[in-house]
Amino acid sequence: MFDPSHLRASELVGIVYLTYLSIIALLVRLPAARRVRVWSAAAFVVIVDLAIGTRDGWVVQQLRDWLPAPVILIAYFATGQFYVAPSAKVEAWLSGWDARLIGTATFESLPRALRVYLDLVYDFCFLLIPAGFAALIWAGASASADWFWTLVSLAEYGAFATLPWVQARPPWAIEPPRAVDRTGIRRFSLVWINRVTIRANTFPSGHASGSLAVALALMAAGPGLAIAFGVLAVSIAVGSVVGRFHYALDAITGLLLALLVWCSMIAFGS
After folding, report:
1. Which range is most confident: 47-51, 105-109, 218-222?
2. Do residues 116 and 153 share a domain?
3. What's the total number of domains in the chain?
4. Which domain holds residue 51?
5. In the listed set 54, 82, 110, which residue is the last one of a domain according to the structure?
6. Mean pLDDT throughout 109-121?
7. 250 neighbors 133 (Cβ within 8 angstroms)
8. pLDDT the model gives residue 109
């Protein structure tokens, strides 16, 4: 029988989200192979969490401390199984907000060094989450591990959760090529995201939401780390728009989602 009493809050969050995906897989039309992948991902996470949650020891505790990081990746790719076809209405809506917020800007006039920086922080933003947790441990705040992962997981899953219902291509896949797309770093970025992402737009942006959640979670370790990671989080959000990996509204709502989760956790004393 499933007994959640020995699970951490962050582990429960992951199980609940993957259960949500498993239920949706029954309700929407998906190829059988995709359903199996979603259910397999959910079963794997539940089994591992239950297996290690009943054991003690330093090694087990270290495993539990770090396990939410790969679970977030598993959940991301499981969510990607629901991406079937972009919605013209959703893409037009997001593009319309781009027109209001950034106009016709192509950002090609930005200094090359700044564009390279923004591309790189976006390309490797997946490293920010484990780096943030490592910083938390380094700062001697390991007691806040579950709080850290609960905040980051809620921010990430909140962004992923809409993908089965709100499907769109990222701007780079729709808009005509730009002159900056011929530069080496830009070519690398486009190849990179084609190979290591689900190649679908998430609204809100999981990159923006998760990155800012890391910075907010690091307040437990001290303002210096929180500020440093906050700068990186804002850079990732800006880079997602400048690089046309996300629509402006994705980035804005992603940042707001992280703030909402953080405020809610504080308000409810989590």
Report:
1. 47-51
2. yes
3. 2
4. 1-82
5. 82
6. 91
7. no
8. 85
The DSSP secondary-structure symbol of 28 reads: S
What does the block give as tokens for 212?
Answer: 């800012």
Q: Are residues 137 and 239 in the same domain?
A: yes
109 by Cβ neighbours in 10 Å (0-12 / 13-18 / 19+) ranks as exposed
CA angle 235, 251, 170 (to 5 degrees): 105
199 & 111 share domain: yes
- Average confidence score pLDDT of the chain: 93
Rounded CA separation 90/77 (Å)? 21
Q: Are 210 and 152 in contact (CB under 8 A)?
A: yes
Does 97 share its domain with 59? Answer: no
Q: What is the pLDDT of residues 125-170, one digit of tens each?
A: 999 999 999 999 999 999 999 999 999 999 999 999 999 999 999 9
Query: Mean per-residue pLDDT for 48-73?
Result: 91
What residue type is assigned to position 70 of the chain? Answer: P
Last residue of a domain, one of 82, 99, 132: 82
Cβ count near 79 (within 10 Å):
28
